[in-house]
Known about the structure:
The complex is a heterodimer of chains A (about 350) and B (about 375).
Chain A: H1 3-18, H2 21-31, H3 35-42, H4 51-64, E1 70-74, H5 81-92, E2 96-99, H6 106-115, E3 120-122, E4 135-139, H7 142-151, E5 156-159, E6 163-168, H8 172-184, E7 194-200, H9 202-218, H10 228-244, E8 245-250, E9 253-258, E10 271-277, H11 280-287, E11 294-300, H12 306-309, E12 314-317
Parallel strand pairs in A: 1-2, 1-4, 2-3, 4-5, 6-7, 6-11, 7-10, 9-10, 11-12
Antiparallel strand pairs in A: 8-9
Chain B: H1 5-26, H2 35-49, H3 51-59, E1 76-77, H4 80-83, E2 96-99, E3 110-113, H5 117-129, E4 141-144, H6 155-167, E5 179-180, E6 183-184, H7 186-198, E7 202-209, H8 210-220, E8 229-236, H9 248-259, E9 266-270, E10 279-281, E11 293-295, E12 300-305, E13 318-325, E14 334-343, E15 348-354, H10 367-372
Parallel strand pairs in B: 1-14, 4-7, 7-8, 8-9
Antiparallel strand pairs in B: 2-3, 5-6, 9-10, 10-11, 11-15, 12-13, 13-14, 14-15
Helix pairs in contact in B: 1-2, 1-5, 2-3, 5-6, 8-9
Amino acid sequence: xxxEALGRLVSGASRLYxxxxxxxxxxxxxxxxxxxxxxxxxxxxxxxxxxxxxxxLSAWALSQxxxxxxxxxxxxxxxxxxxxxxxxARIVAPEVVLRPSRRDPICARALVECMQDTSIRIEEGLDVxxxxxxxxxxxxxxxxxxxxxxxxxxxxLGHGTGLGVCVVGGDPVAAGEAIARDxxxxxxxGCLSPRIVWVDGGARARxxxxxxxxxxxxxxxxxxxxxxxxxxEARRWGESMRFAxxxxxxxxxxxxxxCAPDAVLGPPGRHVHVAPFATTxxxxxxxxxxxxxxxxxxFQDGGLDPAALVxxxxxxxxxxxxxxxxxxxxxxxxxxxSSTDPRRCPAPTAR
Amino acid sequence: MKxxxxxxxxxxxxxxxxxxxxxxxxxGRAPPEAFDALACDLARFQAxxxxxxxxxxxxxxxxxxxxxxxxxxxxxxxxxxxxxxVFAFDDGDxxxxxxxxxxxxxxxxxxAMRTTETYDLASVAFARHTxxxxxxxxxxxLVLGPAPxxxxxxxxxxxxxxxxxxxxxPASEEETxxxxxxxxxxxxxxxxxxxLVVEERNGVLVMATSFALVHVLDALGxxxxxxxxxxxxxxxxxxxxxxxxxxxAELRRDVARAFGVGEADIxxxxxxxxxxxxxxxxxxxxxxxxxxxxxxxxxARVVPVDPETLAPVAGGEVGVARIxxxxxxxxxxxxxxxxxxRSAGPGRFELLGRxxxxxxxxxxxxxxxxxxxxxx
Lengths: 351, 376
C-alpha cells in the first residue's frame, strides 16, 4: 500500500474525529466509559502519519507477507483500536473484510464509513469457517483466539488481551501524575493500560501510590460504569490490598499499596497495584509470571535496562503508554496455543 | 497487637477446642460447643496476632471483642495469602508450609502451620465418615500423583499421604504412587491393579487430581482399565492448563467407563491450600444426592455471599464461597474463595465452579484469563 492510500485511511480517521460528537453517547453505553472518557479516547485516535510510520508499517507488512484478503475479527479492543486494525489489514491486502465486535460495533462501522475505501467492507455475523482465502487478523481474549484458530481454514494472526506495567525510579509525584493519565485513558481497558506499578524503594512506592491516588481523584474525566462482575472483583481485590497493605479508594477508582513485589491484578476500571522492589533481580522475578501478557512498560529513571525486562514489550515514558507510534500492532507478542503431552502428567500442585 | 508466651498458649487452647469438634464427630457425639463461640474466639485471636486481619477489621470499624456470630467477622480473600503472611506465630515456629500452585515464578499463596495435628485429625475424621465410608478399614490405595517427598509444600500431597497411612494397606511407595518426576507410570499402575484383580480384592481407594485422570483417559483412548470390585475414586483440583478440561459429568462418565466402576463411586473432594478442612460430594453417603452437592463437616461452613457486598445471599441464590473453617486456628478462620456456590440445605452446598469474572470490555486482560493461564 502506498503512502497515498494510507493517507486516505488516516483522513478517514480525521473525518471520524471531526464528527465524533455524533457517537459519544452511544459509545459511552457500549464501552462503559463516561462521555468525557469517550471524548478522551477519541484524542487517542491516530490522525497523522509520519514518514517514519510509513517506513515501519511497510517493514511490518513485509514481515507478514502479502495476502489477497485480510479478514479482521474485532472482539475485544478499545474502541479506537479499530483504526489500527484496519490499517494493518489494508497494508498487507488489497481487500479487507471486517467483522465488528457484536458488543461494540459503533466505531468500526463509523470508521469504514469515513474511510471511503471501497476495498474495505463490513460483514456482520461473518462465520469464521466460511473464510476460504487470505488470512485472518483476530483480536480478542485467549479463548476467542483459540476458538477462531480451531474454526479457521486459513492462517490466523491473533492479537490477545494484555496489560501494561510501570517501573518507577524517579520523582514520585511526577510519576503518579503521569501514570494517572495512562490509567484514565480508556479506564484501563486497553492492553497498553498500566495495571501494576513497581517502584524502586518502599518509601518512594508509598509516595507514588499517594500521588497516583490524588491524581486519579482529581482527574477531570470521570470513571465510567463498572459491571456487576467488575464491582465484585474490585471489592475482593480491595480487601486483599487492605489485608496486605493499604488502599486509597473512591468513586474514581482505587490504588493498593503492598510491601513486597508480588502483584495481584485488580479488574480494569482504574485499579492499580503499587508494589516496591529493592533490586533488579527482585523486580525481574515479580514480573516473570506476567511477562507474556505485558505489552508495554512505562518507565521512569532507575538504574536498570527496561528493555531487557520483557523483550517483546514496548518501553515508553510514563504518560505516553496509550500513544504508541503507528508502526504495526500495538501488541508485539505473537499469539500461540499450548499443547499438552497426554503421557506427561504434571505434578498435582493444584493445592 | 499482643505478644509473648500467652500467644502460643492461646493458640494451643484454640487448637484443643477445634480438635474437640473432630473427636466428637468421630465418636458420634454432638459438637462440644457452639460453632459461633469458637469462630468468634478465633477471629479475636487472629485479629490480635495477624496484622492484616486487624486491618481488615479496623477498615470496617469492627471491634472483634463485640463479635457474637461467625458472620460478624470479615473474610480473608484467598489472594491475600499471596501478598502477606497470614499466620499468627513467628516464622521460625512453622512446622509445615503449604503453597498454592502457580506457573514458574508466579506468586504462590502460603499457608504456614505451627502444627499439622489439627489438620491431620480433622481431615481423617471427615474422610472416614465420607470418602472411605463402607470400605474395609484398610484397603489398597492407589495415588495418581507423586509421593509426598516430591511435593513437600503441597497440602494435597500431605493430606493424601495421611490417608495412605491411615486407610491404606501396607504397600511400597512404588505400589502406591504412580507419578514420578511428572510422568504417569501406567504400566506400574496396570501391574498393581492386575494383582489386585487376580486376588479378587474388594475395596480399593483411588485418589487423583482431576487432570491426572484426564491424562489416564487420554493414554487409554478407547481401551478400558477395569479396577477391582468395590473401587472408589476420589478426584480433586482444577485443571489450570495441565490437561484438556472436561466438565465434571463428562469426566465422571469417562472414568466410570474406563475403570468399570459406578458413577456413584466417583466423588470429588473440594479443598484448598488456604483451608485446613475438606468437603466431599454428598453422593458418598447419600446415593440420592446429585453430584456437585458437597457435605460440610460440623466444623466448617460454606456461606454463599454477594461478591460486592460480601453479605450472605438469600437462600437458594448463587454467591461466592465464604468458607468458615474452625480448623484454621493460626491463619484465617474465614476465607473468601473465588468459587461460586449455592446452599443445598443444612450442612450442604452446591459447588458451581470458579467465578468466571468480568468479561473484558476492551483488550486489557481479564483477571479470569490470567487465572486460567495458571498465573494466580
